[in-house]
Amino acid sequence: MLVLNLFIYPAVLVVLLAGAGLLVDRASAGLVPTPVLLSVGAALLIGATQLVAYIPAIAPASPYVVLAVALAGFVLGRRRAAAVAGDVRSRPLCLLVPLLAYVCAVAPVLLAGRASFSAYLIVSDAAVHMIGADYLIRHGMDFSHLDLSNSYGQTINAYYNMHYPSGADTLFGASARLIALPLIWAFQPFNGVILALATGPAWLLARRMGLRGLLAGAAALSVTVPALVYGFVLMSSVKEITALTMILTMAALCVGHRRWLDAPPRSVIPLAVCLAAGFSALGAAFGAWALTAIIVLGFVAAGELRAGRMRWGHLAAVAGVGVLVTVIAAWPTWAGVSGSVQVAQNIASTTNRGNLTLTLHPALVFGIWLWGSYQEAPAGSDLVWTQALIILTVIAALIGLVHLARVRAFALLGWLALMLLVWLIVSDYVTAWAGAKTLMLTSPVVVLLAWGGVAGLRASRLRVLAPVLAVALTAAVLVSDAYQYNSTELAPTARYEELGSLNARYSGEGPAIFTDFDEYSLYQLRDLDIAGPDFRYRPTDLHDITTGHGHSVDLERAPPSELLAYPLIITRRDPLAPRPPSAYTMVWQGRYYQVWRRRDGAPAALAVLSTQHGAEPACRAVRAIARTAPAGSRLVAALAPRSIRVHLALSAAPAGWQFQQNGLSMTAPGTLRAPFSVPRAGVWELWLQGQLMGTVAVGVDAAELTRISGQVGGDAAVPDIAGPFHVPLSAGGHTLTVRRIRRPLAPGDGGLAVLSGAFLVPSGPAGEPSLLSVAPARWRTLCRRPLQWVEVVPA
Q1: In sequence order, what DSSP letters do the residues of 126-184 get, joined into one string?
Q2: Domain count within the chain
Q3: Residue where a domain stops, chosen among 463, 487, 511
């Protein structure tokens, strides 16, 4: 699976983009520069998949449309294809630089050696793009049949039926489905390829500054993966990554205007499809960055008119072709332009910070941040080095400004100035969430300007300093990325594979209640019409069974009649979690999940007594519910298993480990020793609660049981559960040991390692909740027993 995800799928995608790029090249009189051929091809395929999705009847044909476009390009552009192959052979950097950018983007998954995606706990927007890409390819932009009472339908409706930009999603969905690849595992490599495409235009811009060879390649790589951009890549911000590639491609085409502006009007097609793709991927908000290219071209055209090198008729024809292609290629966006504008305004004005804890520091624009998270300020020596390197970047950028003016690169200088102006204006207008996106899209511009300083030194008497500055700039960016690579959180592969198997096993049997907080289940269980009571979009008919977004779900708090509409309930395997109502029988159990099916004809309970999970309810409460039971009914109680809690607060924790709200934070290597006692000899199941991304060795009585890593849940504030780990124990006292192991080169080694709790239950049925049914007159038998709930069940 890993080879298919990280190597075969990207290779197929690149071939598709190459074919589409050749088709654009043929349509535009063969004037597409080789370094931007793939990014222009991506723009064309975004437009094509958007148009197909706009017509729901043909939406499922999107993968074949993408294939047909690519084949047409290779057939019609076979001569150019041969020329491109010759260019690549003569300039191997054309392949090496994008390959390095791709490897940077997928490094956490590649070096973990398993299918996954990064920045798992930062934000769940990637889940929306996964279900959106899947839905648009299967159903197109037809939302009439969605069930808006449940989380899946509400999520699709709230985004894609409200003109949320979907250009990147349709290309993603079509390309991955072409080789039947699950979107959840294709998402990271797709983002990696789209980011790598930006190295082509960045290389052209670096050459315009006067850089050649290795210096141009290093500049292109640095411009593509500065610290904040890399952070956005790790959290799979596909809209912004796609927009960045289109912005840089448009800049390269504008700076290279002499190649095509005086050519036949159709030579504007590459620029037009990039404009359209930017609007499709980012929505109306892309207009701010589109203006930079349009204004630069406007000044260039004005100069050409004054010099007599261009006629008004030719300019009008170029503009006409450009507008026509932009409108057609982004028609779904223009057709819903009022909604797209509304989405942009909502994002710009929202007070919801998303995953941001603080407004991002403006210094991130320099592309250097020697810390594991761009949301936190560096400290200690990392802060000193960060400040020193930022000062160096500022000096380099000032030298770059002087150099660009000296070599009369006015088109490039104008574009850089306009991009910085857009940043200043937009940042002043928008709130923190949109401000972060604007900062990210501006960072490559500042890094590019700093590389202008390298070009300036190389053209001066101080040329010996140019390689030194180049090494410093490259190292500063890559080391910044390495910090984030080490701290990223990777999605748990085995757990999602198990969810995917449930989707195949129970497809069409929903709607299903999902009690675990993990919004990526919306994709993995997409054919079950999932209702997540603790999701952002909660089912409308399940009330008061959770205290909020990401909090625990207590089904016993729901009026029993509300559950009648749900044939299935999917729960996380956790012996201390409340068992679903007695009307449901467990039909499947895996390592991570349990599936419960409602028995045919099972009536709703007449009343429910909810207890604190595993507590002994007061006899008066049991008596009160028994008195409500009509003749012929039964009392059914869920008996909690006997459990042994390990008291972490009484344990010997290493210096530096701290107890926080979510548990014990294991910030450095060390070993926790926690005493506990079991009442009888036998095999016990050990369960751990927390977020354990880094490697942790777990043992009992000095014997290591297992090593855990990558065991993380859907939200950093909601403890995940790992287990069971079977251990034979004698009656009496024992010691649990939890040891944090550091593997500095491993992805996620600097990520979360928080232990929230540990407990043991007897192995086998005794460690699972069980049901006890008694006549109402025998209610006293339920007193002084650990219960999860009590129901009054009709005959």
Answers
A1: HHHHHHHHHHHHHH-S--TT--TTSHHHHHHHHHHTTT---HHHHHHHHHHHHTT--HH
A2: 2
A3: 487
Instruction: Give the pLDDT confidence score for residue 354 in this predicted structure.
Output: 66
What predicted TM-score, i.e. pTM, was given to this entire model? 0.95
The type of residue at 543 is H
Report yes or no: 181 and 211 within 8 Å, Cβ to Cβ.
no
**What is the tens place of the pLDDT at every residue in 168-208?**
999 999 999 999 999 999 999 999 999 999 999 999 999 99
Whose CA is closest to 422, among 241, 289, 532, 276?
289
Domain membership of residue 517 (yes or no) is no
Does 542 map to a domain?
A: no
Does a structural domain hold residue 586? Answer: no
Look up residue 509 and give its two tokens: 């049997």
Q: Greatest CA separation found in the chain? A: 103
**Under 8 Å between Cβ of 634 and 775:** yes
Strands 593-598 and 568-572: antiparallel
**pLDDT surpassing 70 at residue 550:** no
The one-character DSSP state at 678 is E
In order of 26, 72, 239, 758, the CA distances from 16 in angstroms are: 16, 10, 20, 50
Distance between first and last Cα of the chain: 51
501 in a structural domain: no
Per-residue 3-state assignment (H helix, E strand, C coil) for 592-632: CEEEEEECCCCCCCCEEEEEEEEECCCHHHHHHHHHCCCCC
In one-letter notation, the amino acid at residue 223 is: V
Domain of 677: which CATH number?
2.60.120.260
Helices within 179-311 (DSSP H only): 183-197, 199-209, 213-224, 227-234, 238-255, 269-282, 287-307
Range of the domain at 385: 2-349+361-487
With contact defined as beta carbons under 8 Å apart, do 721 and 572 qualify?
Answer: yes
